[in-house]
From TrEMBL:
<feature type="domain" description="ABC transporter">
    <location>
        <begin position="4"/>
        <end position="211"/>
    </location>
</feature>
<keyword id="KW-0067">ATP-binding</keyword>
<keyword id="KW-0547">Nucleotide-binding</keyword>
<dbReference type="Pfam" id="PF00005">
    <property type="entry name" value="ABC_tran"/>
</dbReference>
<dbReference type="InterPro" id="IPR017871">
    <property type="entry name" value="ABC_transporter-like_CS"/>
</dbReference>
<dbReference type="InterPro" id="IPR003439">
    <property type="entry name" value="ABC_transporter-like_ATP-bd"/>
</dbReference>
<dbReference type="GO" id="GO:0016887">
    <property type="term" value="F:ATP hydrolysis activity"/>
</dbReference>
<protein>
    <submittedName>
        <fullName>Multidrug ABC transporter ATP-binding protein</fullName>
    </submittedName>
</protein>
<dbReference type="InterPro" id="IPR003593">
    <property type="entry name" value="AAA+_ATPase"/>
</dbReference>
<dbReference type="GO" id="GO:0005524">
    <property type="term" value="F:ATP binding"/>
</dbReference>
<dbReference type="InterPro" id="IPR027417">
    <property type="entry name" value="P-loop_NTPase"/>
</dbReference>
Amino acid sequence: MPHIQLNQVSKSFKGVTIFENMNFAVEKGKIYGIIGPNGSGKSVLFKLICGFIFPDHGSVIVDGEELGTNKRFPNNFGIIIDRPGYIAGKTGFDNLKALALIRNKINDDKIKKTMKMVGLNPESTQKVKHYSLGMKQKLALAQAIMEDQQTLILDEPFNALDAESVENIRNLLRKFKQEGRTILLTSHNQEDIDILCDEVYRINHFKLEKVK
């Protein structure tokens, strides 16, 4: 049984068709790349998979359960789609701590370790409102992985990162794959897709077309 399955999914916004009778299946333990021009529906696809929006027709099934019936959101997903809303006047650590308290699964040491993994200093007193775009991106990555989420849905995870940080995050994603995690990502940089992804799909004529 696929980990994630989209069956005959159609979705439109204000009369504009994004997907029509689209099928897609995701197996655990692989990295999937989704490519397509701006506005083609990459973020819409990820929002459908995460239960943020629902199809007009068809179904989205995660681990055998259809989203929107008994299950609103999938379990154990780490997500970067729209930039998370942070408390501008607090530090990066304090922001992650506030998010961690929602599920209360991890302690301060785990948060600090995750921040270091993505290249942030957990002891810094710098407020998020003074973060660069690259630092905000690292903070978004930290929230997506800090609870050891087993499925990562990452829309442009390399945005605003310098070359050294890109390589660090690529290595992290490779490590997560080796641990058996499932990753779906988009990137405007074809090199990210070529290097990381086991399977690649292009959004074409309202459907997903496998290109690798």
